[in-house]
Specification:
This protein is an alpha+beta fold. It is about 25% helix and about 30% strand. It folds into five domains: about 300 residues, Aminopeptidase, CATH 3.40.630; about 100 residues, Sandwich (Immunoglobulin-like), CATH 2.60.40; about 80 residues, Immunoglobulins (Immunoglobulin-like), CATH 2.60.40.10; about 60 residues, Immunoglobulin-like (Sandwich), CATH 2.60.40; about 30 residues. The strands form seven sheets. It has an eight-stranded mixed β-sheet, with helices on both faces. The longest helix is centred in the last third of the chain and has 29 residues. The chain starts with a helix and ends with a helix.
């Protein structure tokens, strides 16, 4: 400070000391005791109830319990470790909750990022994020808007960016701000909202470590040793770069402000008009003051400048709660008020992710409660306009009859450039038809009418007087053969307005459904089949008739006894009838032959038999199918006497050996006697 500046600074401090009580008087007025009740007949108000802020472990439990209760739309992701976990002194993960239908699939849907508790003492921010998780999941299926958002957006919520700091502030020192890194000078903590990598727009003034930061580790705004030096900001960076977020909200306390980039300079951001418009819409919901970030004070290395400048995300810092509330007001009413003020902001952000520019796009349709029955169907029209132009190839009407499945029909153009039509097929008198429109503009933005369809829809009832119902005639009972084509005959059916549909149903090997007036069918098995013909006319009235088809199996099987056999006495023969065939199935195999004067019968596809008598045997195979049809085939088995060629060949050599042995024995005895 120069010699010239020092006196000015002293004058400023003197002015501030005098002016501050007056300028801040409104915020301190509530410090005076309320004695109005002394002049009233009513009793004094009860003391305020404290809000029970959740510990980090409780928030984690809520996230996993929500995933378990709503596994189809909610999933917890571990996106990184806190500093103390990386250092081995604690076990805290940085968790993100993804909420969307088909939650395990990365769909091509607009994405929103919600972050809270960068700063450890700003407890209400985590409460807002946690309540947002509970609201979106608990209301799914019952609240039209929330259900639509879950179905059509991918919403990522990080309730606690700074788990170590949160635990420390909740249990040890409630005004702690930073994370819990042990710095090189023995102090603790880095300000996570000064640790992002600057504005990323090429302006040196917006780089990390500039305005609103300190390089002193003990400072509350210490920016760390380098951009993204902290595992907590690395986790947000990696999550962001893995997705395509269109809007992000970073909740902080306090001040009642909705802030957008830039935070380091008075210059306007390239998308300032959009940022201002959306920020003003947010402020209209929570009653806060909308402003460019630098209007609060200059910062660099904050999340919103980096998200916007580096990742093209419309990023907002929302300072929730009033100056009177402070960082974490104790009163339950104050915290619940903060939550209720800001949940609508998050929901609007999710909606606007679909079109950050909010370009004009409209579907104008005049619904009616009833439509007179019309055999040609029900034509509907809508005037569809879009600043970017309407994608005429992507216009549809979805309809559901009597709460049935949704079906789609395409829309087409008419003589009027902006009017498009679609025809819902004819439905029966008395039917209730729900329907909605889906349109796309040339920028890929999707619009529905009603807005939150199918959780909201248009409805009409079909009115009119029915004509006489149709008369079904399935024809006379008939007989068919297995494997042969049989033709049904529904030509005798009649209706005064015309039959639109013929349906024949029955069960052969499996359930069968045939269409047309006189369809053909090949039965796979014999039996008696009751076939039902249902006819429907143009008014969706129906009638049914039955016909009995008796299916017989009049095709005999084909027997195949295999090839002839040659065996020796005592040899076993394996007969083989597996090549026998039938159009349905062979149910019986009998093998007959005469053996030692008596008839023998074997059963089975491949029976065995041992022959002990030399002879030639003719074996007859008789195969029978389920209908009693049969066929025969024969096979010859020749049994020969067993020869011993090895013994006859040994007689001469064995005899010679014995003679030689006797000669040697005689000579030996002669020598002994001498």
């Amino acid at each position: 400070m120069t010699a010239f500046e020092r006196p000015l600074f002293v004058v400023f401090l003197m002015f501030a000391a005098i002016a501050l009580p007056f300028t801040a008087g409104s915020s301190h007025a509530s410090d005076a005791p309320d004695i109005s009740y002394l002049n009233s007949s009513s009793a004094p108000a009860a003391p305020p109830v404290d809000y029970d802020y959740r510990l980090f472990s409780e928030i984690v439990s809520i996230m996993y319990a929500t995933e378990a209760a709503h596994s189809g739309i909610a999933k917890v992701y571990d996106i990184g470790d806190s500093w103390e976990k990386t250092n081995g002194t604690a076990d805290r993960d940085i968790l993100a909750m993804k909420i969307s239908d088909n939650v395990e699939v990365e769909e091509d849907e607009p994405e929103l990022l919600i972050m809270a508790l960068h700063h450890a003492r700003e407890w209400p921010t985590a409460e807002v994020a946690t309540e947002l998780i509970l609201n979106l999941t608990d209301a799914y299926g019952s609240d039209a808007r929330l259900s639509w958002l879950v179905d059509n957006r991918e919403i990522w919520i990080v309730p606690v960016v700074n788990p170590d700091g949160h635990d420390y502030a909740m249990t040890t020192y409630d005004m702690w701000r930073k994370n819990r890194r042990l710095n090189y000078d023995g102090s603790f903590g880095v300000d996570l909202n000064r640790n992002y990598d600057g504005s990323q727009n090429g302006d040196p003034l917006g780089e990390w470590g500039g305005a609103g930061t300190s390089d002193l580790p003990s400072s509350d705004v210490y920016c760390g040793e380098a951009p993204f030096s902290e595992p907590e900001t690395q986790a947000i960076r990696d999550l962001t770069q893995a997705h395509d977020f269109q809007i992000a909200i970073d909740f902080h306390t306090y001040g009642g402000l909705v802030l957008w980039p830039w935070n380091y300079v008075l210059d306007l951001a390239p998308d300032n008009d959009d940022l201002v418009r959306i920020g003003t819409e947010f402020a209209a919901l929570n009653g806060y003051t909308p402003a460019q970030g630098i209007d609060l004070y200059a910062t660099t290395g904050d999340s919103t400048d980096w998200l916007y400048g580096g990742e093209d995300i419309y990023a907002y810092c929302i300072e929730i709660g009033s100056d009177q509330d402070g960082f974490h007001p104790p009163e339950q009413d104050a915290v619940l008020g903060i939550i209720n003020d800001n949940l609508p902001v998050a929901l609007l952000a999710a909606e606007l992710c679909g079109d950050r520019e909010e370009r004009a796009f409209d579907i104008a349709h005049a619904p009616v409660a009833t439509r007179e029955y019309d055999a040609s169907g029900f034509e509907f029209s809508a005037d569809i306009t879009a600043d970017r132009g309407v994608d005429v190839s992507a216009l549809s009407v979805f309809y559901s009859v009597n709460s049935g499945a949704w079906q789609e029909v395409a829309m087409g153009t008419t003589a009027s450039n902006d009017t498009y039509t679609a025809t819902i097929p004819v439905q029966a008198i008395g039917s209730v038809v729900d329907y909605y429109f889906v349109a796309h503009d040339l920028g890929g933005v999707e619009l529905m009418s009603p807005m939150y369809a199918p959780y909201e829809e248009y409805t009409f009832s079909v009115t009119g007087v029915l004509s006489d119902p149709p008369t079904a005639d399935a024809g006379a009972d008939g007989q068919a053969s297995v494997g042969a084509s049989y033709q049904f005959d529904g030509a005798g059916s009649d209706d005064d307005v015309g039959i639109d549909n013929y349906t024949w149903t029955f069960t052969d090997v499996a359930a069968q459904t045939l269409y047309e007036v006189s369809p053909n069918y090949v039965f796979d098995r014999p039996g008696s089949f009751t076939v039902t013909l249902t006819v429907k006319d143009a008014e969706a009235q129906t009638d049914a008739d039955q016909v009995v088809v008796t299916v017989v199996d009049d095709t005999p099987p084909v027997a195949d006894a295999g090839t002839d056999h040659l065996v020796m006495v005592g040899g076993s023969v394996s007969f083989e009838g597996s090549l026998s065939d039938d159009n349905v199935a062979v149910v019986s195999y009998e093998w007959k032959f005469v053996y030692n004067g008596s008839e023998r019968t074997l059963t089975g596809v491949s029976p065995d038999f041992t022959f002990w008598t030399v002879d030639e045997y003719v074996v007859t195979l008789n195969v029978t199918d389920a209908a009693g049809n049969y066929d025969t085939d024969t096979v010859t088995v020749t049994v020969e006497a067993a020869a011993i060629p090895e013994f006859s060949g040994l007689i001469v050599p064995v005899t010679l050996v014995m003679v030689a042995f006797l000669v040697l024995m005689r000579r030996s005895r002669s020598g002994t006697q001498k």
